[in-house]
Amino acid sequence: DDAEGGPRVLVRQLEAADYGKGFLELLGQLTSLGNVSKEKFLARVLEIRAGPEYVYVVEDNGRIIAAGTLLAERKFARGCGMCGHIEDIVVDGSQRGRGLGLVMITALTRVAERLGCYKVILDCSEQNQPFYERCGMARKEVQMA
């Protein structure tokens, strides 16, 4: 485990080869994917490579076991600053309880800091609020849809 409480794992950007390592199946544990062919997957990986979306994963034994996305929103506020939005945090059901969610939140927050984001926010369900509080996040304002 590292100093932040999570396991020592490599968090890296999504790459084309992750199509065959279960990335889409993992994301399917979080949300409905629809039809994402290999061609669509590869095109999207190329589109997001330079931002402002950054998709990161944790691989273990050739399988993607955790993932998350950071969106860097370009603002006029704060001197044309940027706000980081964390999205699509998912840990494989068989890997939960190992601290990988914390690792992913920490890694995405560090990416946001390196990009110069003046704040990092996320939306979550009421049921997931305690997890994000354990990751150092605090409830602020209300999301509307």
UniProtKB/TrEMBL annotation:
Presence of the UniProt keyword Transcription in the record: no
Record GO biological process: UDP-N-acetylglucosamine biosynthetic process
Pfam family, one: Acetyltransf_1
Keyword tags: Acyltransferase, Transferase
Catalytic activity: D-glucosamine 6-phosphate + acetyl-CoA = N-acetyl-D-glucosamine 6-phosphate + CoA + H(+)
Chain ranges of the N-acetyltransferase domain: 9-145
Class in the EC hierarchy, top level: transferase
Family stated for the protein in its record: Belongs to the acetyltransferase family. GNA1 subfamily.
Protein name: Glucosamine 6-phosphate N-acetyltransferase
Organism this protein belongs to: Mantoniella antarctica
Lineage of producing organism: Eukaryota, Viridiplantae, Chlorophyta, Mamiellophyceae, Mamiellales
